[in-house]
Amino acid sequence: MSLRIDPLRVADLPEIEEIERQSFPTPWPRSAYARELENSFARYFVLRAFDGEGRPARIVGVAGLWVVADEAHLMTIAVRPEERGRGYGEWLLLHAIETAIAAGAEMLTLEVRETNTIAQRLYQKYGLQVEGRRKNYYAEIGEDALVMTVRGLTGIPYRQQIAARRAALEERIFAQPAVSGSQA
């Protein structure tokens, strides 16, 4: 099996809807993703697994962000529950950050559930720090969101940090027995 990050397509929406249902208490409907595909600020992509014959097997995860002027906002990131813990969420986050940098964004921001400490640690690994709180942001579960931000995306020190993270992550992901190749 090999992996590749591709732009999100309309044909991917049924699988994305399934990943959303498995990942979030209030998943985005397919129609929300369809609207995002028409949004000029939005950039959405999937992590696609391919079988040994090079045929698409399934979508492992999804991520998306908006880039407006010099700011990027991570809108979503999700990985199938059975695929978590292998670095795939980090791979999607890294791709989102690199996409933001390529688009000229100087900062990236996101909201994360205050109890989602696993995601918070991942975001901190990439320099995001808590800068605020949105009370009852996740109203369906009565939970606040932490607002996390990183600045200086296009600066040399941050780009060097990202390059080092990419090298370590590629080694981790592509050294796994189930994965061959380093397509991304």
How is this structure best described in words?
The chain has 184 residues and is α+β, with helices and mostly antiparallel strands. It has helices at 13-23, 30-37, 88-102, 117-125, 156-174, and strands at residues 2-7, 42-50, 56-68, 71-79, 107-113, 129-138, 143-151. The radius of gyration is 16 Å and the shape is globular.
Keywords:
184 residues; alpha+beta; seven-stranded mixed sheet; 5 helices; 7 strands; globular
Number of beta strands: 7
**Count of helices?**
5
Mean pLDDT: 92
Tell me about the largest β-sheet.
Answer: 7 strands, mixed
In spatial order, strands of the major sheet run: 1-2-3-4-5-7-6
Evaluate the radius of gyration.
16 Å
Which parts are unreliable, with pLDDT below 50 for 5 consecutive residues or more? 178-184
Q: SSE order in H/E notation? A: EHHEEEHEHEEH
| Helix fraction by DSSP (H/I, runs of at least 4) | 25-40%
What fraction strand?
25-35%
Give the distance, in angstroms, between the N- and C-terminal Cα atoms.
13 Å
Sheet/helix structural class: alpha+beta
Shape: globular
